[in-house]
Amino acid sequence: MRKIAMCLGVLAMVSLALASGAWAQGSDIPRTPSGHPDLSGTYDVSTLTPMQRPRALEDKRFLTDEEAAEIAAQELQRNTARQQDSDPDRGAPPAGGDGSAGASGNVGGYNSFWIDRGTGAFQIDGEWRTSILIDPPNGRMPRQTEARMAAQSAARAARGAQVQRRANDGTAYWLEAGLDASGPYDNMEQRPFAERCLLSFSSTAGPPMMPALYNNHKRIVQSEDTVMILVEMVHDARIVRMNAEHDPPEMQKWLGDSIGWWEDDTLVVETTNFRDRPAYSRGSKNMTVTERFRMESADKLVYAFTVEDPTVWSAPFTGEYAWPRSDNKVFEYACHEANYALEGIMKGARVLEAEFRGEDPEGVVNPTR
Amino acid sequence: MSKQTRVMCRSGLAALVLAGLVVAVGVPAMAHHAFGAEFDPNRPVVLRGPVIKVEWVNPHTWIHMEVTIDDGSKQVWMVEGGTPNTLLRRGLSRDTIPVGAMIVVDGYQSKDRSARANGRDVTFEDGRKFFMGSSGTGAPRDGRDQAEPGR
């Protein structure tokens, strides 16, 4: 009788702990009433640590405290320099472009106060990391398959038969092949998904989900049968169906088909069924991405991912980085309503084409010219 | 290893790691759209005048300003900036760039020849950046500067 009473007492204590959400096996992470870690909340995933380790560091996976502090200090120094006053009497930038590369395309970007890429390296289990990638052990992407490289060469050759994309020189260069030649701005559906507000860029939703230049917040809402991950960039929301089967392979989705399950205290999410051009643009529709979410502490989630695609890479690769909890909110992105850029890009191409044909398109007076 | 050498090694490593980043601030490697597709490198502008409206919207903020051209007539120009989310999170709003504030913008006119430009560098008329005063990200009270008083 005494044993039964003792068992009932223990059961009551466990039930109480479960109901309060405070039950934990040697840790203070929040839990749901069913005992799983409660990942619900907002996370700021920005980090200065790069995806791939600089080659010179070879197998050096960790930073010392001093090295991590130095990285943060250098970034602070850069930010401070960027905040210095500009010349109030400055003139226009150089005609012909400022030489900037990438998305800035020879015309420059915008002030650094719009940017929020983090202030330092990240730490996992007390260790500062030199790269997000941890496997291969050198922190570098595995080699692409011969077949993939051959396919890319063939695609380049095919493009060569058409118009070669050029750096932005302010001309309708694609018409050099003929006034009827096709170009990169003929149709809005040629434009990248992000430009059309269809998908986020820099694989912020992925999967795998990567840090970006800004809008690095994620919000997780968790229930027993579904986990939702809201991504601040553009407006992607990933839906993970728990303890479910994948949809049939012919059902391909923008963000793939994600199913999840718990392995002890780790949420495992497997995603397949990608489209031809997945958000993680290096991959293909044949990718399988396995993500692992675990709470290192009440304030920090560790996000890990393994990507396998034997049609693209000679080996799988794995990365991980820290997602500290944030008191901030994920603000609405509402991309379409003010997407003036797409209109400007399409109209701009028509104007340049008219110029190429020798016409003199109308426009406002440029006060600087 | 001398202290100086150690410092150099540390700095070298930090520089290496930072160099591994795919971005260089001020020159977005990835953005919602390629600025190079929208703006014309052959049409540089420098614009001076008062702010008349701020569209605090995604994917990019647009600052409207009035510019007086040589013949004395006035034009309204739209200047493209970054996402407002970053600034909203730091407690800033479109009121931070008040209507009537005199600003200077340098950038390039849009290829469609409309009165639009990218805000390559946007400052107050005396050259000050909009959001100074923190050793964190450049925004005041962004919570990353422990030395900053009272959030």
Key features of this structure:
heterodimer, A: 369 residues, alpha+beta, ten-stranded mixed β-sheet, three-stranded antiparallel β-sheet, 4 helices, 13 strands, disordered N terminus, B: 151 residues, six-stranded mixed β-sheet, 3 helices, 6 strands, globular, disordered C terminus
Question: What is the topology?
Answer:
The complex is a heterodimer of chains A (369) and B (151).
Chain A: H1 2-20, E1 41-44, E2 62-63, H2 65-82, E3 123-124, E4 127-129, E5 133-135, H3 146-161, E6 217-222, E7 226-231, E8 237-242, E9 257-263, E10 266-272, E11 288-297, E12 300-308, E13 317-324, H4 340-356
Parallel strand pairs in A: 8-9
Antiparallel strand pairs in A: 1-6, 2-4, 3-4, 5-13, 6-7, 7-8, 9-10, 10-11, 11-12, 12-13
Chain B: H1 3-19, H2 35-38, E1 39-55, E2 62-68, E3 74-80, H3 84-89, E4 102-110, E5 116-118, E6 121-124
Structure characterization notes:
The complex is a heterodimer of chains A (369) and B (151). Helices cover 19% and strands 20% of the residues of chain A. Chain A has 369 residues and is an alpha+beta fold. In chain A, the strands form two sheets. A ten-stranded mixed sheet of chain A has the order 1-6-7-8-9-10-11-12-13-5, with no helix packed on it. The relative contact order of chain A is 0.15. With 151 residues, chain B is of the alpha+beta class. In chain B, 18% of the residues lie in helices and 31% in strands. Classes of the chains: A alpha+beta (369), B alpha+beta (151). Chains A and B meet through α2 and α4 of A and α1, α2, β1, β3 and α3 of B.
